[in-house]
Amino acid sequence: MQMTKRTAAAVVAISSAVAMPAAAQENGNGSDLSGTLTIFSDMSNPAPRAVMEDMAARFDEMHPNLDVEVTIIDREAYKTQIRNFLSADPPDVANWYAANRMRPYVDAGLFEDVSDLWDEPEIQENLASTEGALTLDGKQWGVPYTYYQWGVYYREDIYEELGLEEPQDWETLKSNCQALIDSGRKCFAIGTKFLWTAAGWFDYINLRTHGYDFHMQLTAGEIPWTDDRVRETFANWRELINMGAYIDNHQSYSWQEALPFMVNGDAAAYLMGNFAVAPMREAGLTDDQLDFYQFPAINPDVEMAEEAPTDTFHIPSGADNKEAAREFLRFVVSAENQTRINAADGLGQLPVNSAASVGDDEMLQEGFELLSSGAPGGLAQFFDRDAPAEMASVAMEGFQEFMVFPDNLDDILQRLEQARQRIY
Amino acid sequence: MTTATLPDTHADEGGPGWVRRNRMRLAPLMFLAPGVLFFLVYVIFPVLESFQISFYRWDGLGAREFIGLENYRELSTDPAFEVSLVNNLKWLLLYLLAIPGGLFIALFLNQTVTGIRIYKSLFFFPFVISQVVVGLVFTWFYDPTFGLLNVTLEAIGLGPVNVLGDPRLATYGIIAAGLWPQIAYCMILYLTGLNAVDPEQVEAARLDGAKRWRMLWFVILPQLRPATFIAFVVTIIGALRSFDLISIMTNGGPFGSTRVLSFYMFEKALSEYGFRMGYGAAIAVVLFMIMLLFIGYFLWSMWRQERMP
Description:
The complex is a heterodimer.
Chain A: H1 2-28, E1 35-41, H2 46-62, E2 66-72, H3 75-88, E3 93-97, H4 103-107, H5 115-119, H6 121-126, H7 128-131, E4 135-136, E5 139-140, E6 143-147, E7 150-155, H8 156-161, H9 170-182, E8 186-189, H10 196-210, H11 212-219, H12 228-243, H13 259-263, E9 267-273, H14 277-282, E10 290-293, E11 305-307, E12 310-314, H15 322-333, H16 335-342, H17 362-373, E13 378-380, H18 383-386, H19 389-404, H20 409-423
Parallel strand pairs in A: 1-2, 1-3, 8-9, 11-13
Antiparallel strand pairs in A: 3-12, 4-5, 6-12, 7-9, 7-10
Chain B: H1 14-21, H2 23-53, E1 56-57, E2 65-66, H3 70-77, H4 79-95, H5 98-109, H6 116-128, H7 131-142, H8 148-155, H9 170-195, H10 199-207, H11 212-223, H12 225-240, H13 244-249, H14 261-269, H15 277-307
Antiparallel strand pairs in B: 1-2
Helix pairs in contact in B: 2-15, 4-9, 4-12, 5-9, 6-9, 7-9, 9-12, 12-15, 14-15
């Protein structure tokens, strides 16, 4: 049964590719969309959920003959369910993530090639910054709807009390850290129970030590983990670990459980994505206490690159109503919608459309500045989105172990290298 | 009797006549059919399919590629698999502590005092609440900064211990959490067993001068054999299917030191980063073999008991 379904999907994919120009023309003649548009979404947290429901309602209103049905699935559960519904019961539109996280579904032919959308000038010009993240094998497989910056969120009041400045280079970061430790605090809060937070640190130290291209080659499996350059990255990381920069027992906490250390002032900073700002504010940190700086340079010759994980919409290749689905993707990335959904009272993140305007919020404005002019080196997705899933899980476990037992480095690198040889 | 009222029983020779003649053999089969069907579809076929998948390389989406015993060869050199296997053994051995633990609480509670029912239900309480809640409670208890354990240790002048963050201690910490409800379960089994102990035999033993340990060992325990057997079965099975506690308390960490086979299988095949159905299936097959060992032993001893009287 699965076989027939897949063949059927292939037939649909081919025939729709052939029929597409005609359909597009028809659409241009003013005929409206009809039928049902089913959307499966992982935007299950309260704010994203409201945004998703609002988007669907507005799209529904714009197309009176079209029925929009949204199913919102818990964000974590979605990551495993997507495998089932893409092949068994595909919706017309589905959420996912950019870069290598799309790879398994692209390779299995479960995502529709939407390069035709990217050829439209409206999208081509305004979404150029994220085109690379949506491209695999020279084709585009979806559209982005939001992204966010990573950086160091710190306690402005504590820095002022100790007379510290935002660091511009590695030496200042370390001397700041020493001053914080001398005052009885930790420099950085982190919770590595779910591993990926450690990958954020690895990525940044690696990007600053060797640059964006090295990051991409490493995650693409082109560089052995036992390479001396990888060791350099770990050696830089170790300087912080040996200083006692991180909170103790971080392996027992999730990133949320580590927030109190920062809120109570036991740790002065947190390397995180912008989504950490909302819970920090809710916990009582005011704008006077909370600020943001770009992760400082380590090797001054390396161009600054940033992490900007991008969340996306895709059309499953087995979708029934692809015409409506394409129209929905156009709607999602339009400047007006981008401004609206990413505003401070919506997702509170950055719009992907360069013609959209950024929400009225200190962190969003700084983040937009950072990603549009502060990252000439390039925008990485994140370790677990740039590397294949399996490599990511083995490597992130190694990062956590390194943070607790830095002496195990040789053993860890040996293990990662074995995994690399098997996986790629 | 009723056949006489049926007009055309002879119109269709082989049919109803054959059914009627084989009624005694057909009826049990018919009653068994739904159960057998579901057992086949939901248990036997998946087991067989797991065996089959374990010989393939498959990401759960694309085409399968036959690789023979490659997955098993990889398992034999996989340090994470070794850790999981050793942890499974630790679970099996230490979980058995629930049996004596349950027995002694049951002996202690097996008396007639006012309000004993309340005490009994309080002791049984941990088994009633969900494993997820047990896991959360113990995670807070072990919390290295705010947890009750460390606050207590500090009060008597001992250094803080991060039980779940230390790869040497974490598994024992989780097993201790698992023992809490498991002891309660064994206790209930023994309490029911104690109800069936023959008071005349106890009386006779007492007249012969048996006391304390000798009384327990030679008179009470032999009569509790059925309860012990069931307690043994549920404890072994409970130890082998330990999953929820690990998932809640450490998520397999720190750096994979608390994984057991079932958790490792889930991680490899079904979790966020798991796309290796074949490898996961191979782990499941190994776990199945271990379980088969115990299940075989249980079935054999049950069969022997039924034959004995």
